[in-house]
Design a protein that fits this description.
Blueprint (H helix, E strand, L loop, with lengths): L8 H8 L13 H5 L4 E9 L9 E2 L4 E2 L5 H6 L1 H6 L3 E6 L8 H10 L8 H9 L3 E3 L9 H8 L6 E2 L3 E2 L17 E9 L5 E11 L4 H4 L1 H4 L4 E2 L2 H14 L4 E6 L16 H4 L7 E4 L5 E2 L11 E2 L4 E2 L2 E6 L5 E12 L2 E13 L1 E3 L5 E3 L5 H6 L1 H11 L2 E5 L3 E2 L9 H17 L9 E6 L15 E2 L2 E4 H7 L5 E8 H11 L13 E2 L12 E3 L2 E4 L21 E6 L2 E2 L5 E7 H4 L13 E8 H12 L1 E2 L7 E3 L6 E6 L14 E7 L5 E6 L1
Parallel strand pairs: 1-4, 4-5, 5-6, 9-11, 11-12, 12-16, 21-34, 23-32, 27-36, 29-35
Antiparallel strand pairs: 1-17, 2-3, 7-10, 8-9, 13-16, 14-15, 15-16, 17-18, 19-20, 21-25, 22-24, 23-28, 26-32, 26-33, 29-30, 30-31, 36-38, 37-38
Helix pairs in contact: 5-13, 14-18
């Protein structure tokens, strides 16, 4: 008989049945249906990267959204549990930050000891068995994190986060959380008899939190390499009696080779002896599935394995429920895995015309648990703070100077000039680096900033700047400014002169790493290859995409020093921009970039967000390129500065296609 794990995912799904659309029929998973008397079916369910999206509601757009929300994911948990004789529910981190409800709880309401955070309320309703931390748990500080997580009715584990310096042996580290837990569960076998199963859960967080949240962690915490940590603790879990070891890895999948302190280490974590299955996250992608990891060596995106072991990544914002189904068999006094299936089950689908169809409704108990905080968040984000004389939108932010990025740079420059006016840096030239955060991509054709002229509310500011980063500034040379821009220019594919409708955008380059530096003028020569790869390594040392780089109307002096205002993520080395790291930081602000934007708008009363077209593409006669953006971009086509763009019809997946004449 063909093992269930060898079937195509669609075939498996039809066998599994399920209750995505209806609760009228429950079909047992084949493992439960066929398990022998010495066998049992264990279903492990994952949520990951919820980012406070409990409700199916986009607070930035102030409207419901059927593609998100733990309240939606929750509604299929009961049916998914019913398909299996035995089940457990885990979360893989990034709970506490990511939408205005998170900001409301952190900045407006606050979390005292004993308070219950809405995301924890929702999770307690659903009966989670275990969880781990994500990197965004630290964004609001350790006190906020502990006051929040202490309300959970389930254990949280993290093996590579220490209190202060690392010990010589990972097992001697002074940890904030238990490195692992072993949960004993009464497992019902194929004959209906119950036997104890000891399931070990070990958790990991990206080591890079020490860069990304240095202001909250420096001097108070440290992180270890994920693989090194796992090799130390997994044998201890086996010695403690774990029959099965499950890794909760808030770390993505990267097949480019193992490195020390690797951010996306889950593939190589699977190679650690003793780990039986892996839940992954962090990258906001889906595994198994047809798109995201098809070409990663060692990853089977159809079967759902990493180095042969079962693994799942369940999307983001509650978009999917990750399922690892294990057929386990009694082997003497312990259990072993004899078969498995993996699935990322969505809460919605799109029709051929890209219309979103919800597969599930809200779970009433979850909605009721967070109703007060949901309403308070709506009141919070609808509060006006000023006016804008023109629309703010990001539809063309990747191809031309853009008003949504311009206003961020204006605010940052205004702020840092005031902060440095009495310091030794007061006479240095000030530049500002900002990137578009909402620029389509995986977020879909509606994932763009779009604020009409008139009142600006807090929700609009959060829309302009998604993350609660804090302001920092670095002191760098003109040459380093150029290399910063060379790294940003990795956003674009190389275009052969004379080509018609070349593909413009590199889909693997995240929009939040496409920094535009305001205060200089420059052009990007697409005929040249990128100088740097995604890790900031030089791949084309002779290439120079950034041309005509000028400051105050003159070619930039490579030796001149500039203050560049940015955020803590970039200043701390986030994005791996060449030579940009904490040793260049000369100012650490107490304020978030969002707060600075709000204060700037309040100070100005009415802002003028018009882009100044300080950058554009170098001309290439007879050459055109195409890119996709949201269909509403057509409303702003005539307002684009520094580029000639025309409508090129419909794109795919609900996007619109445009042509830029180079």
């Amino acid at each position: 008989m063909t093992p269930l794990s060898d079937l195509h995912p669609i075939t498996r799904r039809s066998l599994l049945g399920g209750l995505a659309a209806s609760s009228a029929l429950i079909v047992l998973h084949p493992f439960s249906a066929r398990a022998a008397s010495n066998q049992a079916h264990l279903r492990l369910m994952e949520t990951t990267d919820i980012h406070v999206n409990v409700m199916p509601y986009d607070y930035y757009a102030d409207k419901p959204n059927d593609t998100m929300g733990l309240a939606r994911t929750a509604s299929i948990i009961d049916s998914i549990r019913a398909e299996a004789a035995n089940s457990m529910l885990i979360d893989n981190g990034d709970l506490l930050q990511g939408n205005p409800m998170g900001d409301y709880m952190a900045y407006k309401k606050g979390m005292k000891a004993g308070d219950l955070h809405p995301v924890i309320k929702a999770m307690n309703v659903l009966g989670y068995d275990c969880g781990t931390l994500g990197n965004h748990e630290f964004n609001y500080g350790l006190d906020f994190m502990f006051n929040t997580l202490n309300g959970a009715n389930f254990p949280l584990v993290c093996a590579n986060l220490t209190k202060g310096e690392l010990a010589a042996d990972p097992k001697q580290d002074d940890l904030f959380f238990k490195p692992y837990v072993i949960l004993e569960k009464a497992i019902k076998d194929g004959a209906g008899n119950e036997s104890p199963l000891k399931i070990g859960f070990i958790g990991f967080v990206p080591p890079q939190i020490m860069l990304w949240d240095a202001k909250n962690l420096e001097g108070r915490a440290q992180t270890r390499d994920i693989i090194q940590t796992a090799k130390a603790w997994v044998p201890a879990m086996k010695e403690d009696g774990a029959d099965i070891v499950i890794a909760l890895s808030h770390s993505g999948i990267d097949g480019h080779g193992q490195e020390d302190r690797m951010e996306n280490a889950s593939l190589y974590l699977a190679g650690v002896e003793g780990i039986d299955a892996i839940f992954t996250g962090h990258q906001h992608l889906v595994f198994p599935g047809p798109k995201d990891f098809a070409d990663v060596p060692g990853a089977d995106a159809v079967r759902g394995t990493l180095l042969g072991k079962p693994a799942v990544m369940a999307g983001f914002w509650g978009s999917h429920m990750g399922l690892i189904d294990l057929l386990i068999e009694k082997d003497g006094g312990s259990w072993k895995i004899v078969d498995f299936t993996c699935e990322a089950r969505p809460i919605y689908h799109r029709t051929e015309d890209r219309k979103v169809i919800a597969e599930v409704a809200d779970k009433p108990e979850v909605v009721a648990a967070v109703a007060a905080e949901h309403q308070a968040t709506l009141d919070y984000v609808r509060t006006p703070v000023g006016k804008t004389s023109a629309p703010l939108y990001s539809y063309f932010a990747l191809v031309a100077d853009d008003p949504s990025v311009q206003i961020v740079s204006n605010a940052q420059t205004w702020y840092i000039r005031d902060m440095l006016k009495e310091t030794e840096f007061k006479d240095y030239a000030i530049l500002s680096a900002a990137a578009p955060f909402k620029a389509g991509g995986r977020g879909g054709p509606d994932y763009y900033t779009d604020v009409a002229a008139g009142d600006i509310a807090i929700k609009n500011v959060a829309d302009l700047y998604l993350y609660p980063n804090t302001v920092q500034a670095v002191l760098i040379s003109g040459e380093q400014v150029k290399n910063w821009l060379e790294m940003s220019a990795g956003m674009f594919n190389q275009v052969e002169p004379g080509t018609k409708d070349a593909s413009l955008i590199n889909p693997g380059f995240p929009s939040y790493n496409f920094d535009v530096i305001d205060g200089v003028t420059y052009k990007i020569d697409l005929s040249k290859p990128p100088k740097y790869d995604a890790d900031g390594k030089v791949i084309n040392p002779e290439s120079s995409r950034i041309v005509n780089l000028q400051f105050s109307g003159h070619a930039i002096d490579p030796a001149q020093k500039f203050v560049v205002v940015t955020n803590n993520y970039r200043a701390g080395g986030g994005g791996k921009f060449p030579e940009i790291a904490s040793d260049k930081v000369i100012f650490v602000g107490p304020d978030t970039n969002r707060d600075v934007i709000v204060r700037y708008i309040v100070d100005q009363g009415t802002i003028n967000p018009s882009a100044d077209a300080n950058w554009s593409f170098a001309p290439m006669d007879g050459t055109t390129a195409v890119f996709e953006t949201g269909p509403k971009a057509r409303d702003y086509l005539k307002a684009v500065k520094g580029a000639t763009i025309e409508d090129a019809g419909d794109g795919v997946d609900g996007f619109a296609q445009f042509r830029i004449i180079l």
